[in-house]
Amino acid sequence: MFGARVIYDMLFFFVVIIIVLNLIFGVIIDTFADLRSEKQQKEEILKNTCFTCGLDRSQFDNKAVSFEDHIRHEHNMWHYLYFIVLVRVKDPTEFTGPESYVYAMVKVNFEFLKKKFLSLLLIS
């Protein structure tokens, strides 16, 4: 009688532990799958959308300028970042017209660029 009770208790604990662990592992695996999917979606957006103007790659089909040339030469995001850093570091009394305008705009509303660059850095 005692042996049957021990076997019953052991089977109960093993079954309960296996079920609970499978539930926990399922949640963990599902969470990582969601994170991977979100990262792939951000990479796809970054690869197929101009960071600066938001135009899609498909809008450059049959155009004189390819999407790669557009993002490399016309709207190189790092040049924009370097320019903003220059404006923030440079003495305001030495600004040119465009620099003073950008300085005023960045001083008023810099949050949109922070979010864009932060999302870009989180992808990398």
**Radius of gyration computed on alpha carbons:** 27 Å
Mean pLDDT: 83
Name the helix and strand elements from N-terminus to C-terminus, one letter apiece: HHHHH
How many structurally independent domains?
2
What is the helical fraction, as a range of percent? over 70%
Biggest sheet details: none
Separation, N- and C-terminal Cα atoms:
63 Å
The low-confidence parts are none
% residues in beta strands: under 5%
How are the SSEs placed, and which strands pair?
Blueprint (H helix, E strand, L loop, with lengths): L1 H47 L18 H8 L2 H13 L7 H12 L2 H13 L1
What does this structure look like?
The protein is built from five helices and no strands. 75% of the residues lie in helices and 0% in strands. The chain has 124 residues and is mostly helical. It has two domains: 1-47; 49-124, no CATH class.
Tag the structure with descriptive keywords.
single chain; 124 residues; 2 domains
Care to give the gist of this entry?
By secondary structure, the chain is mostly helical. Helix content is 75%, strand content 0%. It contains 5 helices and no strands.
